[in-house]
Amino acid sequence: AGEEFDQQRLGLVYKKSFGSQHDLTLRTYTMRKDFSGFLPIGTHIPFVGDDGAIAYQRSFSGAGGLYTFTDTLMDMPNVFSVGFDMDYQTDDRQRFINNAGVKGNITFDQVEEAESVGVYFRNETTLTDDLILSIGGRFDNIDMSVDDLYLANGDQSGDLDYNEFSPAIGLMWNKSQALNLYTNYATSFETPTFSELGSPAQDLNVNLGGFNNVNPQKAKSFEVGSKGSVFNNRLYYDLALYTMDVENEITNVVNIGSRAFFENADTDRNGLEAQLQAKLTDQLNLTVTYTYSDFEFTSFDGTPAAVGESLPGIPEHQFYAELKYTHPDGAYVVLDALNVGEFYADNANTQQVDSSIVSTLRVGSTIDINGTMVAPFFGVNNLFDEDYFSTVRKNAFGGRAYEAAPERHIYGGVTIRF
What we know:
Elements: E1 2-18, E2 22-38, E3 53-73, E4 76-99, E5 102-128, E6 131-148, E7 158-176, E8 179-190, E9 217-230, E10 235-256, E11 259-279, E12 284-299, E13 317-326, E14 332-340, E15 343-344, E16 352-353, E17 356-364, E18 367-369, E19 372-381, E20 389-392, E21 402-404, E22 409-417
Antiparallel strand pairs: 1-2, 2-3, 3-4, 4-5, 5-6, 6-7, 7-8, 8-9, 9-10, 10-11, 11-12, 12-13, 13-14, 14-17, 15-16, 17-19, 18-19, 19-22, 20-21
């Protein structure tokens, strides 16, 4: 098993202001990547997971622009922005038999192309001294195609075309530095990736290419929140509550060998996010965050038993705390802890993952030596040697969902800036 790749990237960004009212940003980029790898599966596996030698050649490029005009609208301060994105990707992708680390016969060969064009706008109007209205929207046109070059099992070539407009509206009331209330309603649109469009699990015995019947997912969300600073800016708070209705959420249903397969399901997501940042002294800062997530399946044609169950991989409760001391001379000490609550590893909620509390300690300093900045650092990960999982693969074949995290370990180094 192993992998190797080489990759090159080039990007350019141009920014220009025309007076105090007009701002323009243009960007363009290109990337190329050649990848090959051997997954730790081979001809001894009793299903078609033995095509564990994979390779692809990828070209990815695009451009975009954003124009912002600051003026007044009916004597009210107004900021209008309009922009576009254009992106193109092509993958020449193959799979081969993995004969104990030797590339065998080809089993899969297709060229995948995706073209995306998006245009968007946002308008922000200050209705009164403390009330701001924002309205925006985005239109996307996305074309995806597959040219099947491995015809031993038939021609699975095909193409898909998506068009969608996604509007959003928000209102913010800046009553004072201590109280900023806001509410947002937004929609979103996301197509499947080529991996998510892979042929469903029941077709593994013939290793089909092309597309399956996974549809794009759409979401409608509503959010209310408040944020602000109190006690002479020594305490900052941020609180948000939201609800989201997702139609055709692209959902993992099984992982077999080297492949993951997906179907659509409808979900409801309700949650709360809270954060406090407290300046205890001039050198000592405390940050505390809490996340509550009530996410469940509401409709799932492919797995009816999952309806009403929680989405896998997402804990209902998550808590984080960080204490940081910074000395005026540049030295610092940071101690943090992350508490991840129980969650499930599968759609049917039969595999439960225990909660964990993992802490880290980091120390360091920045020293100026005749204009050269020297910054030594040292850290301990998993400070109290907690047993937990670093990776949980959702809906893994045979229940093989778990990958153990490292035990307590130490690292250190130095950064030098001339």
